[in-house]
Structures are given as C-alpha cells and as structure tokens.
UniProtKB/TrEMBL annotation:
This is Phosphate transport regulator. It comes from Pyrodictium occultum. Keywords: Coiled coil. InterPro entries: DUF47 (IPR002727), PhoU-like_sf (IPR038078), Put_Phosphate_transp_reg (IPR018445). Residues 56-83, 130-157 form a coiled coil. Belongs to the UPF0111 family. Pfam families: PhoU_div.
Amino acid sequence: MAEDYYDYDMERRRRRSLAEESLNEQLLGIVRALSDSIIGLREVVTALTNVDDRRLRELHRRVKEAKERIESMKEDALMYLARLGDLLNTGTLYRDIFLALTRVAQMAEGVAYRSYLLASNTNMSSSTVNELLSSMAENLQKEFNQLEAAIQSLTSNPKKSYENAQLVTSVEDDVDNLYRRLTLAMYRELRGDTVALMLLRDIVDMIEDIADMLRDAAENVKFLALYRVAH
C-alpha cells in the first residue's frame, strides 16, 4: 500500500545533506579560529625581527590559546564524523582537513615559543635574514587567505572554491623558494651564533611545514569542490 512505502534513499540523501552542512559549519569555525593563529604568526615574525621579547611573550600566549580552541573544535568534529559512520563518501576528506588545520595551529604555537626564546637569548642582527623571514611570513598569510576563501565558497560556489584552492599551490611554491634562500642566508650570516642558528632553523622549518600543511588541506578542499560539482 502507498501509505506503507517509505523512501529510504530520500531519507539517506537528506541525512547526507544535513551532515555536509554541519561539517562545513564546523570547518568554517576552525578556519576562523586559525585565522587568529596566522595573523598572530605574522606579528610574531615582526616582533622577532625587532627583537621584542616582551611582545613575543604576549603573542605566544595568544597563539597558544587559539591552538587550544582549535584542538577542542577538532575533537568535536572528529566525534561527529565518528557518529556519522559511513554515511558520507567525503568523510575522510573532512577528517584530513580538520587534522591538517589543527596541526597548523600547533606548529604556529611552536614558532611563537621558539621566537620568544630566540629574542630572549640572542640578537637577530642580520637584515637579510629578517627581510627573508618577513617575506616568508607574508606569503604564508597569502596562502592561508586563498585556503580560507576556498573553504568559505565550498558550499555556495564549488567552482570558485576549486580555483582558490588551486592558487594555494602557487603561493606555496613562493614559500618554498624563500625557504631555500633563507636557509642559505642564515647558515652564512649566523654561523658564529650556534644558539640563534638552531632556534631560527626550527622556526623556519616549522613555517615551511605550515605551508605544506595548508597545501595538503587545499588539495582535499579541491576534491570536495569537485565532488560537489559532480553531484
């Protein structure tokens, strides 16, 4: 009888749509929180090049608080994904983006802490190193801005989302080039200060790792955008 018929496929599609909407909201929330970390990271680099250890101590606290917020949001998102089970074909993509963005926040906190140690114990006197480090942080901000735009338009305009995510890779290439130049410059100009060289190498490596994680997150956003276009 007609009244006994129930469209299970329609119900599953409805649940998928609601799940995607919820995950996108959670993703946007994490990106907004991560924006504080990336802005803070730019300020950290500025304070480091000015050898302002008092400002760096304050910035480290701020970046650490943002990291803790993001870690909590990530846990909520992963619990939600676990409850969904195999409802979504895209669940793994969302999980990997949540994990990558959380790792970015964690590394940003690491950069802030090491920058405070560097400014407190050594003197960054190389204008070449300072200039390259500032350029690297500036390009990292540009890379994040493209990823943020890609995530913001994922639901409303997946084609635009794909294009923004694609641009992340080209900006990451610029970060790679600056990383190579900066590595050479700091070994050349800081070779007489082992502590400064070791701490700065950690900082530069972490910034490069952040750029890589943003690129990886963008690749997953591209797949999500393509999936939305196809369906």
